[in-house]
Design goal:
mainly alpha, CopG_antitoxin, elongated, 3 helices, 98 residues
Length: 98
């Protein structure tokens, strides 16, 4: 069995800029045993989003914009709400039919 490498102590930093510069110029494996790392969940972070290109018939887009205007929300936000609601509905329907 190979001996594990001796890890260097992580220095203290005066501020985030100093820490950022340090990690940009040093190999983290000299300081951290990543084989012992565990997954971490950050429940308060907003989920990341991805921009997509979606082609819609112009009359449908016009109706969505009209609805969004009546609700005083951006039409893209309204589309996300509609999609999320429909996905949840579909998933509930599928799970209850099993």
């Amino acid at each position: 069995m190979a001996r594990s490498k001796k890890l260097k102590p992580i220095p203290s930093f005066k501020n985030e800029d100093e820490e950022r510069e340090f990690w940009a110029t040093h190999d983290s494996t000299d300081y951290i045993d990543w084989s012992k790392a565990e997954p971490v969940v950050f429940p308060n972070l907003k989920p990341s989003t991805k921009a997509i290109s979606l082609r819609l018939p112009e009359p449908l887009l016009a109706r969505i914009k009209q609805l969004a205007n009546a609700k005083d929300v951006p039409y893209q936000s309204l589309m996300k709400i509609f999609l999320a609601e429909q996905v949840e509905k579909e998933l509930r329907t599928k799970s209850s039919s099993r």
